[in-house]
Automatic annotation (TrEMBL):
Residues 268-568 form the Penicillin-binding protein transpeptidase domain. GO terms for cellular component: plasma membrane. Residues 65-226 form the Penicillin-binding protein dimerisation domain. This is Peptidoglycan D,D-transpeptidase FtsI. The active site is at residue 315. Its EC number is 3.4.16.4. Keywords: Carboxypeptidase, Cell cycle, Cell division, Cell inner membrane, Cell membrane, Cell shape, Cell wall biogenesis/degradation, Hydrolase, Membrane, Peptidoglycan synthesis, Protease, Septation, Transmembrane, Transmembrane helix. Catalyzes cross-linking of the peptidoglycan cell wall at the division septum. One of its GO terms (molecular function) is penicillin binding. GO terms for biological process: cell wall organization; division septum assembly; FtsZ-dependent cytokinesis; peptidoglycan biosynthetic process; proteolysis; regulation of cell shape. It comes from Agitococcus lubricus.
Length: 612
């Protein structure tokens, strides 16, 4: 038997089949690309030219897709800044020129089309001469805004009048539902939707998103006839939840405005912090402004003084001086200080108390606000002790909150740490702070000595924090500060029914602009405190700038403490913080009948000619 090899497939035939299929695929691909190219040519050249010749003024153009700016909301989801669609009218000066000067070489020459500038100016409320200059001085420009941010229905009326080369584009305008209450917090955006102040500026990149591009056909009235292609999709900005509570913010703004008006003051500032998280619950400045209508608003009104302005904090710094005394190990809460006869000499300067308090303990220095007592403390310690202690708490440096425009404050240079300067620093003169720095220091004490980062956005997990003083020292300060808000202290008007409150008053002279001496009769009245003392939740600072001195109601316990009481009471209620003492009527403040302030009022001590 003969064996034969099996017959193999013909390779040539298979190659021929493959080549045929490959050729067919190539033909199909060529036809597809040819069709796409022809379509593109038709749309960009033939179709556009045809439509123009027909006088329909349909234009193929690449347009920007404006990204929707993210919302800003309070911690509970209440809108604080939203974007609403508006229409901006624009004109194509180049097209105006071409319409007025048609090409005589065209197969079907068109009649000149002249823009009625007077009618257009009247329709949108512009000066016709200015409008004509803008249009005809830019004959090569293809885009020129006529009027921005018009109500869509108003803009549509103009577009329906069929002005040549006038179009509409959808943009977004910011609206602030809470108005002046949150103006200094939120800030505002400009016409191009870019943040210019406040949170709008701080988180501009996050809120703004990314614009896209699309190719469309529009008619002369600005109507979109057809979407051709989306070249780049727009990416909406992110929404932001702030740490603020709009309800507390509203109460704070109202109470502060009333206090500024009642005391005939120049201005007022308030910041409230959540002691347990470091979140800012409210930040208010008075006078404020309406962010939805900024016409006539001055730069001074835009200024967020609570984080920008520096001032001498006065007696509110005595709490820090007493904390240093406890930390030094030289003093206890029971340590005695002889303040007789109510004054003492430091070199050629005299430090005075308003009354001779005699022999007092450490806590009474805070209760009665003794300048002599704090001076004795600081002069018994190394010169660097107090300035470096202030620096540890963040004075003389920004808080790291990132809020635009925040000031550093000022601690005197080491070369100035001399007895007289240290004495005045011990009771809050010769040092400059911001309200934000001051409230952070008090919140640290309220948090049993642990300082948390300041946050203007809502946080879900509080950070670890940094311990600045021991819990023992912080807790020893609690009863001293609580005694201030008692019938024996300087701030009975800061009391909140149902809650134990602690804090410190301050009434500081305003330095002259040249830095030499103080302005006569001009003060800042302060109260800084926290509640409830059993488990502190909210810390708050209130500053009234230049209250009237006519009725002697210019000290912190008289004008700032009542604002604290009102706002703190509402804030604790809104946050459902449990009461920590029985409800009872607050102790009435004794009427001031003489021109001499009583012992329990914290006013600046009189200075002799040699005192700075």
């Amino acid at each position: 038997m003969k064996w034969r090899l099996p017959k193999l497939p013909t390779l040539q035939k298979d190659n021929q089949d493959f080549s045929g299929r490959h050729l067919l695929l190539q033909v199909i691909l060529v036809l597809i690309f040819a069709t796409m190219a022809a379509r593109a040519t038709y749309l960009h050249i033939i179709d556009k030219d045809f439509l123009r010749r027909q006088g329909d003024a349909r234009m193929v153009r690449v347009e920007t897709i404006n990204a929707h700016r993210g919302m800003i909301m309070d911690r509970n989801g209440t809108p604080l800044a939203v974007s609403t669609p508006v229409t901006s009218l624009w004109i194509n000066p180049k097209e105006i020129y071409e319409l007025a000067h048609p090409d005589p070489q065209e197969k079907h020459p068109k009649k000149p089309v002249i823009l009625d500038v007077n009618a257009l100016a009247s329709a949108i409320g512009l000066d016709p001469v200015d409008l004509a200059n803008r249009i005809y001085k830019n004959p090569k420009k293809e885009f020129l805004y006529l009027k921005r941010h018009m109500a869509p229905d108003v803009a549509q009326v103009v577009l329906e009048r069929d002005f040549p080369a006038v179009y509409g584009i959808t943009e977004y305008r910011r609206y602030y539902p809470e108005g002046e209450s949150t103006a200094h917090v939120i800030g505002f955006t400009d016409l191009d939707d870019h943040g210019k102040e406040g949170i709008e500026l701080q988180y501009d990149k996050v809120l703004r998103g990314e614009s896209g591009q699309q190719q469309v056909i529009r008619d002369r009235k600005g109507h979109k006839v057809k979407d051709i292609a989306q070249l780049k999709p727009a990416k909406a900005g992110q929404d932001i939840f702030l740490s603020f509570d709009a309800r507390i913010q509203y109460v704070a703004n109202r109470a502060l405005a009333e206090a500024v008006a009642k005391s005939e003051a120049k201005a007022g500032y308030l910041i409230a912090l959540d002691v347990q998280t470091g979140e800012v619950l409210a930040m208010v400045n008075q006078p404020s402004y309406n962010p939805n209508n900024r016409q006539g608003v001055t730069l001074k009104q835009l200024r967020n003084s609570a984080v920008i302005d520096m001032f001498e904090p006065g007696s509110t710094m005595k709490v820090m001086t007493v904390a240093l005394a406890l930390e030094s190990g030289k003093y206890t809460p029971e340590s005695k200080f002889n303040t007789n006869p109510g004054s003492m000499r430091v070199l050629n300067h005299t430090v005075r108390d308003h009354h001779n308090y005699g022999v007092i303990d450490l806590g009474t220095i805070i209760t009665k606000s003794s300048n002599v007592g704090t001076t004795q403390i600081v002069l018994s310690l190394p010169p660097e002790a107090l300035p470096t202690f202030f620096q540890r708490f963040g004075f003389g440096q920004v808080t790291g909150s990132g809020f635009p425009g925040e000031s550093r404050g000022r601690i005197q240079a080491r070369s100035e740490w001399k007895p007289v300067q240290l004495s005045t620093m011990s009771y809050g003169n010769g040092v400059a702070v911001t309200v934000l720095q001051l409230i952070r220091a008090y919140a640290t004490i309220a948090n049993h000595g642990v300082q948390l980062p300041i946050s203007f956005t809502k946080i879900t997990h509080p950070p670890q924090g940094t311990r600045l003083i021991s819990q023992q020292i912080a807790d020893q300060l609690f009863p001293m500060m609580e005694s201030v808000v008692s019938s024996d202290g300087t701030a009975i008007k800061a009391a909140v029914p149902g809650y134990r409150v602690g804090g410190k008053t301050g009434t500081a002279r305003k330095p002259k602009e040249n830095g030499r001496g103080y302005e006569p009769g001009k003060y800042k009245a302060l109260f800084v405190g926290f509640a409830p003392m059993s488990q502190p939740r909210i810390a708050m600072a209130v500053v009234i700038d230049e209250p009237s001195t006519r009725n002697e109601g210019y000290y912190g316990g008289a004008v700032s403490a009542p604002v604290f009481s009102t706002v703190m009471g509402e804030a604790l209620r809104l946050m459902n913080v449990p009461l920590d003492k029985p409800l009872e009527a607050p102790v009435p403040m004794k009427a001031i009948k003489t021109t001499t302030p009583p012992a329990a009022l914290d006013v600046p001590a009189p200075m002799d000619d040699g005192e700075t």
